[in-house]
Amino acid sequence: MNLHEYQGKELLSSFGVRIQRGIVAQSADEAVAAAKKLTEETGTGWHVIKAQVHAGGRGKGGGVKLAKNLDEVKDIANQIIGMNLVTPQTSAEGKKVHQVLIAEDVYYPGDNEPEEYYMSVLLNRANGKNMIMYSTEGGMDIETVAEETPHLIFTEEVDPALGLLGFQARRVAFNLGLSGTAFKEMTKFVSTLYTAYVKSDASLFEINPVLKTSDDKIMAVDSKVTLDGNALFRHKDLAALRDKREENPIEVEAGELGLNYVDLDGNVGCMVNGAGLAMATMDLIKQAGGEPANFLDVGGTADAARVEAAFKIILKDPAVKAILINIFGGIVRCDRVAQGVIDAYKNMGNINVPIIVRLQGTNADIAKELIDNSGLDVLSATEFQEAADKVQEVLS
Question: pTM for this one?
Fold first, then answer.
């Protein structure tokens, strides 16, 4: 589950991570009131207006701007709120901005020049350890840094059983070229950031940039926080932060129906029971010359109601030119699934795309007979290759 920047910063702050302070606003008038309050609390004279959407690269799309007075705060907030923000991480249509973060200006003059760094905490799946990735090249896309100057990216592997050790936090600060107060500040920042990552059951923290201010404070100017959805039962307060407006509406509807659904860009809809079989089915579709339009795991109770719900979800995608149903009858009997397909088809009326049904396992022979004798425009298959051939046939 993704959090907005302001939510991520609030989470970081609750663990003691220093952040660029700000107040969220949903209208231009609220933005002005927030700016006034922020000036009273922090003394900031300028304000940064940041669009709150689940996408990076907001500045490149015009979603992050500096306001030097209250009139500019109001004008910029009016421009950003309600716009469809297009960034390198959104579709061509962009994402509608419902709210903005009014943040303090932290690039104030002082004894030293401000410096920006990149830092993230995530799981290294190759070795099962958490990893802190960091670079002196803050403010840039980390992909660009990795491609053009990979020697400027450092990593610190952390054994989950031991946690982040003191010398590791100090090594991060050293590799970033810090000394004195800034060194101590960065050591504390890294330690508290890692603690927040572990205790919130996050799957990603990305802070870009981490800022060393002109007076050697270290703080998070931005925050991208992704929480592990499987652990949200332990964090009811964090689960309540979910913003469904930022998610694919079809995926949200599928989730409410108890279906595991991920929207993709292809032309063949998939209805499968079991995540592993669903992945194999997607490979099957690509091998047949098609592209999967979705990942959809109906689970072990593929009855008529569940199959009908899955049909309706798949058919919401206008790009779908065929549907492949691939069910292994282990927990659920194939004949019951076949009857569910037939009943769902009849309940929905005419379905204008070809349907290929592959049922294998308990009572697969009875299931094939039910499908073949149903009188419906449904093609049955029993083998993987047979199903692939029929997908290829209907697509051509």
Answer: 0.83
Per the residue annotation, which of 5, 156, 206, 308 is the catalytic one?
206
Q: Classify burial at 221, counting beta carbons within 10 Å of its beta carbon; exposed 0-12, middle 13-18, buried 19 or more.
A: buried
Q: What share of the chain is helix, strand, coil (3-state, %, to 5)?
A: 40, 25, 35
Q: What is the pLDDT of residues 154-208, one digit of tens each?
A: 999 999 999 999 999 999 999 999 999 999 999 999 999 999 999 999 999 999 9
∠ Cα 312 277 370 (to 5°): 60
The active-site residue out of 5, 115, 117, 118 is: 118
Could you confirm whether 117 is annotated as catalytic? no
Q: Two tokens at 187?
A: 């050591």
Compute the Cα dihedral for 17, 20, 22, 26 and give only its sign.
negative
**pLDDT tens digits for range 376-389:** 778 888 788 888 88
Amino acid at 354: P
Report DSSP state, residue 217: -
Catalytic residue flag (residue 118): yes
